[in-house]
Write a structure and sequence with these properties.
Layout lengths: L1 E4 L10 E4 L10 E11 L1 H9 L14 E9 L11 E5 L14 E5 L4 E2 L6 H6 L1 H14 L7 E4 L5 H12 L3 E6 L2 H9 L4 E4 L5 H8 L5 E6 L4 H6 L3 E9 L11 H5 L3 E4 L4 H5 L2 H19 L7 E6 L3 H9 L6 E5 L2
Parallel strand pairs: 8-9, 8-11, 9-10, 11-12, 12-13, 14-15
Antiparallel strand pairs: 1-2, 3-4, 3-6, 3-15, 4-5, 5-7
């Protein structure tokens, strides 16, 4: 099969299209998927730059997100049959024989969920990692409830644009930071109540004005760095602050967060894959099943801003690394 691989960390051009052996089913609960799309996420660019979690298993195929059609099933598979369309987040962290920048992938069936009928394969491939990240951050870490207020940073981004929708589905009121008027219009279409142009406005002041001086119940940081610490004054006393990036103590202090008795949560949706936690992996499949129902009911949407052919994976990485992409970037696989 054709697959995009890399043998050493570096710039996007280390990603090269090669012919490699097609993966085979070796476990009874595994599926062989003929891929039609692979999501491209910031974690892919970081692994390409710095090296994978398993450097001893190079060369590697990147790509955690996939969507395609079941080609074959193991002897104990019970949920799927050949011909079923599926989407999932599995592999792509450097383990040999995994990854979705390829024509085929083999995954355990519990990672997969039926592809939403209303989504194309490219849209479905764009969805899993960001959906699971936003779900865990808002529903599990922050325990978001109806009528709460939430600040979502980078609301037009990959994680942010689905986080807005999940927050609204939970009955929350949403403000979100964006960089342009076009992005402000997009997030309003997705349900955001209050877009904040951070390039023109003091974000904390805007949030406090929107919440009548109290601060939001929940803040979701998808940016990291100084943004994490700058968000603290915008969160109410005893509120929640969730981040998908590791806070850097060189860029701020936890003193104000401690004074406000904030609950600080770290979100990494890769944990079940990295730890081998099968219960967590099954939970991810369940999240995708529920989100699939919402997609088909018209309550969720995924915004694919750019798509590239498999052979142009390097160009897809360069697009992500501009830091200004809207929605998701996807690889189209014939």
């Amino acid at each position: 099969m054709q697959a995009v691989t890399f043998s050493q960390p570096g710039q996007p051009d280390v990603l090269q299209l090669h012919r490699v052996p097609t993966p085979e089913i070796t476990q009874p609960h595994h599926l062989l998927i003929k891929l039609h799309g692979a999501g491209v996420n910031p974690i892919d660019t970081k692994l390409r730059q710095r090296g994978t979690f398993y450097p001893e298993q190079m060369p590697a195929i990147l790509g955690c997100d996939g969507a395609g059609v079941v080609e074959a099933v193991g002897s104990a598979v019970s949920q799927f049959k050949p011909g079923d369309a599926v989407y999932y987040c599995c592999g792509g962290l450097g383990v040999s024989g995994t990854g979705n920048y390829a024509e085929y992938a083999v995954i355990p069936e519990h990672f997969a969920a039926p592809k939403p009928k209303r989504l194309s394969f490219l849209e479905a491939a764009a969805a899993p990692l960001v959906l699971i990240t936003a779900w865990e951050a808002l529903y599990d870490r922050a325990r978001l409830t109806a009528n709460q207020t939430v600040l979502i940073h980078a609301g037009a981004g990959g994680v942010g644009h689905v986080a807005i929708q999940l927050a609204k589905l939970r009955g929350a009121r949403v403000c979100t930071t964006v960089s342009t008027l076009d992005k402000a219009r997009l997030v309003r279409q997705l349900g955001a109540d209050e877009p904040i142009l951070y390039t023109q406005t003091d974000v904390t002041a805007a949030v406090l004005a929107w919440t009548e001086g109290t601060g939001v119940d929940v803040a979701f940081d998808t940016v990291g760095g100084a943004t994490f610490f700058e968000t603290v004054p915008a969160v109410r006393t005893y509120g929640d602050l969730v981040t998908i990036l590791e806070p850097d103590h060189h860029q701020g202090s936890f003193k104000e967060a401690r004074k406000r008795n904030h609950r600080i949560s770290l979100e990494l949706m890769l944990t079940p894959m990295l730890s081998g936690d099968e219960a967590g992996q099954r939970y991810h499949g369940e999240i995708l099943r529920q989100c699939g129902q919402w997609f088909d009911q018209g309550q969720l949407s995924i915004h694919v801003a750019q798509h590239f052919p498999l052979a142009a994976a390097a160009a897809a990485h360069r697009a992500i690394e501009t830091g200004s992409t809207t929605g998701k970037v996807v690889l189209a696989i014939a």
